[in-house]
Amino acid sequence: MSSDRAIVIGAGHNGLVAACYLARAGLDVEVVERDTVVGGAVSTVERFPGYRMDRGSSAHIMVRHTGIVEDLSLEACGLEYQDLDPWGWHPVPGTPGITFHVDLARTCASIEAVCGTQEAEAYRLFVEDWSARNLRVFQAFQGPPTMAHLGRTLWGVGRSTGLGGLELSRQFLTTADSLLDEHFTDERLKTALAWMGAQSGPPTHEVATADLVGWNTVMHLKAPGHPRGGSGMLSEALQRRLESFGGRLRLGDGAAAVTTSGTRTTGVLTDSGDSLPAGLVVAGCHVLTTLDLLGPAAPSWAARARRTVRTGNGIGMAVRLATSDLPRYPDVTDDVYRSIQLLADSRQALRRAHGEYVAGLPPTEPAVLAMTFSAFDDTLAPPGKHNVTVWGQWHPYALSNGENWDAIREREGTKLVEAVDRYAPGFASSVEQMHVQTPLDLERELGLRDGQVMHVEMAFDQMFMWRPTPELAGYRVPGVDGLYLCGASTHPGGGVFGASGRSAARVALADRSPSLLRKVFHRG
Fold first, then answer.
1. Taking 80 as the threshold, does the pLDDT of residue 395 lie above it?
2. Is the pLDDT confidence value at 235 over 90?
């Protein structure tokens, strides 16, 4: 019966998480996906013979803090996480660089060797303070952003500091650069922290970005992870778990429309013309795509949502490289290759790159990070070869200079390789094959509108109870009963997280039957 069926639109990791929880509750669940690869931006494919390359994300940070992997027993479905420890490394000429280990004492020792005792002690205090704050923030990420939930989880954030509420709120609302300037004096350390903090998209000179840097501190509590075999192994494990609960995945046949009767969802029409009746639909695709799927049935407020939801002008681009060697940075130890390599000269260089992005121009000297997971995962490249990803941030989707991405793809991809070569001389000559993903390619292949990997800009006014709009912040679609949202468009945002998929399933089950909710989320 359609009342017992649930359709999930999109086989991204959030959609798959939602599908798993709905199926565990006993619903008849089917996931429909236009792509022929499971996982969306959390997927891995063979780009070149013998090279397994991620299509989107590579390092998994937030999902490892949610408990989803353990709750769904994904290890039993083939998921094997390899710790990224150290989790970050920043080159400093003439030194081994600054290495960020999970162990705080080891990190402070690295900072002390480069920046001095005072900076190391300042970092230790900063981590102890802001990691405690972000444990509370993370609780806020684990449920719908209602005032009750946010008030319950965020109440008392930072109170252990002895600071008053006004000062604490000022600290959260300040720029990340100002926060760094308050705590540290060494620009090399500040550059490393700023570049890691900017990975959500907003630059660290914007208001209310302080906690994007403060969030780095949680990586001293649990290491980011790399799934053995590539990022997509998380999605493949979720698929196996879904199937073990009786759910199904339909690849190569996406949603063409969400069907309705009056104000009630009745199911999904697929690209192939199949009509799939269902009393419950969860859309894991972009929020604007969901409104498109509703067509004329979209509520009256949808027109305003289309105007106010900001996808932004992309974020960046990537090159996936088949190489004969790793980037050989001077004076480093091999553990650096487990880390996210934060290759930026200075905060001024970051601002220049962002300034060109705002002007709609490809960056003259892109700020990049490199990931070298084939150094310890032998499934990613043939013997004796390596698989290197270079991400360049702040590459505009819409160019203002009359150029187009298809024409400049190779030129801009080569810039990213050259950016690594400046820190690891000779690296460019080790590149044997290059797959370039421009912002336009990210849209074409992964359905990321305007090349925005976070779906919706992660600016403060599009977070928490404002994401993606106040009407849609609770995962329900007002005016269309039975239709729910999950994915990067919704709270808590982009990245490899899974929390919105779980929260959307929780809300949908609560609306359907409190007993079903207890069955899934209050297990003995």
1. yes
2. yes
